[in-house]
Amino acid sequence: MIRVSVLVNTYNHERFIAQAIQSVLDQDFPAGQMEIIVVDDGSTDATPQILQRFLPRIRYIRKDNGGQISAFNTGVAEVRGDIIAFLDGDDWWPPSKISAVVDAFEKNPDITAVGHGFIRAREETRAQEPCVPAESYQLSLKNPDAARFAYSGRPFLSTSKLAVRKSVLRAAGRLPDNLIFFDVPIQLFAMALGTAIILNQPLCFYRLHGENLYETRHPDAKNLRRRYQFISAQLDFLPDALAAVGVSRETLAALFEADKIACEQMRLVLENGWPWETLNLERRRFRSAYTQHSASYRMFKSLVLASTLLMSPRRFYSLRDWYAARNLRRFRKPLGEPVPTPGIQLQ
């Protein structure tokens, strides 16, 4: 009999937390095989009062504010289940979520993590947009090509879509607080120890609202710096940590190539470095992102690269954002679209 621990992290989610908790209580999975642990990271709004309504059906842990990693470390120390499923306090699940995840674990004894499709629920417009893979598939870090492809699975293994075996958490140990978010480290530890499966079912409602770090493609300077800080922290910690559990250096280089490029781009935007730095980074980005391209597209790209030397990095990336926001790439289609490297998604 598989026991499941649902670990909910929350901070100032008074508008959302009741729906999140109720969605767990409404699961069609046997209540006797499931525990619900809610870690409140020092909320200053009405979240604590709202959570009191759900006692004793939940185990409520309140702590001083320390960030998501701190809440994760606190909650993980309390879990007793064989499978741990994570939920952010501003998201919610359909009733079939836990049953579908447990079924995947039971049918695939060797897998270490389960992710799945989701529905983007936009708070302002009430619009709901499905984001579901065409078919279920598996991810691992067994070699560099597999690691590049694994990068594409990150959205389906982020917090409210992620469930892992308890053995993954034991291997990961206590995560450093400066990582800020726990989902990428945990999903990568899972793939280092075994295989993750992505289900082609929408088993989570991912709420987009004003406080989401990734709500907008082009964040303001504060959010951009926050992204830069946590990606830098991951790059400092994860390669050595994953190497310690057996991931090869060649595989790690492939796995983190896109993150390193994204991190360097953010540094250039924030610190406004030298034009030649933009040129070198964009060359590297182009080689990493595409496997095939036409001669006419290569000529177009050469002109774009040359333009990096005529302006500051900040100005170049501002123009590129303007170009992307207006979908001007449609005018270059006659040149032939380059073929992306499998799994690599560079903005």
Instruction: Give the low-confidence spans.
Output: none
How much helical structure, as a percent, in the residues?
40-55%
Radius of gyration: 21 Å
What is the terminal separation in angstroms?
44 Å
**Judging from the principal axes of the Cα atoms, what is the shape?**
globular
CATH topological fold name of the largest domain:
Spore Coat Polysaccharide Biosynthesis Protein SpsA, Chain A
The assigned CATH architecture of the largest domain is Alpha-Beta Complex
Question: What is the number of domains?
Answer: 2
Determine the CATH superfamily of the largest domain: Spore Coat Polysaccharide Biosynthesis Protein SpsA, Chain A
Average of pLDDT: 91
Q: How would you sum up the major sheet?
A: 9 strands, mixed
Instruction: Please state the structural category.
Output: alpha/beta
Please give the number of β-strands. 11
Listing every helix as H and every strand as E from the N terminus to the C terminus, the arrangement reads: EHEHEHEHEEEHEHHEHHHEHHE
Q: Counting H and I runs of at least 4 residues, what is the number of helices?
A: 12
Layout of secondary structure:
Layout: E1 4-10, H1 17-25, E2 34-40, H2 47-52, E3 59-62, H3 68-76, E4 83-88, H4 97-107, E5 111-122, E6 128-131, E7 137-139, H5 144-151, E8 163-165, H6 166-172, H7 183-193, E9 195-208, H8 221-243, H9 249-271, H10 275-289, E10 290-292, H11 295-307, H12 313-325, E11 339-340
Parallel strand pairs: 1-2, 1-4, 2-3, 5-9
Antiparallel strand pairs: 4-8, 5-6, 5-8, 7-9, 10-11
Helix pairs in contact: 5-9, 6-7, 8-9, 9-10, 9-12
